[in-house]
Amino acid sequence: MKRFVLFTLIFTLAAFGALAQQADGKVVVQTFKFKFKSADKAAQMVRPLVSSGGSVSIQAGANTLVVTDRSDNVSRIADAIEDYDVPSRTFKLELKLVAAGRVTGNPPAVPEDLREVSTKLAGVLRFNSFEKLGELAVAGREGDVVRRDVDGAYHADFTIGEYDPVTGTVQVSDFQLGRYHQTAAGKKELTEVLKTTLNLKVGQTVILGASKLPESNRALMLIVVARQ
């Protein structure tokens, strides 16, 4: 019985200490008015930073965000908003289209700029043959729509979305990759190969399997890097 009472006392003291620690965190209300970005989109970025007892409300007409939380947490949120509410940033997107396959015997030499990627693909998917089919490097600002051919055989469409300073990612939305082909009538048409939305961590290489190449045992791989 004494042990039980002692345990209960210790537990009660620990709980009281935790409550006292929470009570010491002063709750403040701060309003953030956005100059360059939308309060709606800013709320999506801020919500993961708000504590369980905090709240975020949007005043769409005034393009403002009202945050209620502990003062230390509001300070952290204010820093994130300061990094977010800036003029549109410019990003450089680098795309490579690679045909990857498996061959018996001695595989062909891997192009120097594909060696890092080939190591990853060889380990995960057992590919040992790599051929670069095309590449594209394009710079654009947040919100820009990009429509470019990739070495004449493929076409890429996408929108450069907003940068999230909390996660260090930029969204590439409505990404569409198409492949040109000739119809029986000799007309050039575009066939969709890949359609997706990407959240790219700046500086990190992302590898996607786009499709199987026609009349081939090779796969078309898309390698994307976003740089600031």
Could you describe the 3D structure shown?
With 228 residues, the protein is an alpha+beta fold. It folds into two domains: 63 residues, Ribosomal Protein S8, Chain: A, domain 1, CATH 3.30.1370; 138 residues, no CATH class. It is elongated and about 70 Å long. 20% of the residues are buried.
Radius of gyration: 26 Å
Q: Stretches where pLDDT falls below 50 for ≥5 residues?
A: 1-24
H/E series: HEHEEHEHEEEEEEE
Helix content: 10-25%
Query: Could you describe the largest sheet, including whether it forms a barrel?
Result: 4 strands, antiparallel
Rough outline: elongated
- Measure the end-to-end span: 65 Å
Can you give the mean pLDDT? 85
Total number of strands: 11
How many domains? The number is 2
SSE class: alpha+beta
Task: Estimate the strand proportion.
Answer: over 45%
Strand order of the largest sheet: 5-4-11-10
Question: How many H/I helical runs?
Answer: 4
Quick synopsis:
The radius of gyration is 26 Å and the shape is elongated.
List the topology elements.
Layout: H1 2-24, E1 27-33, H2 39-46, E2 55-59, E3 64-70, H3 71-84, E4 90-101, H4 115-125, E5 129-141, E6 145-150, E7 154-164, E8 169-182, E9 188-201, E10 206-212, E11 219-227
Antiparallel strand pairs: 1-3, 2-3, 4-5, 4-11, 6-7, 7-8, 8-9, 10-11
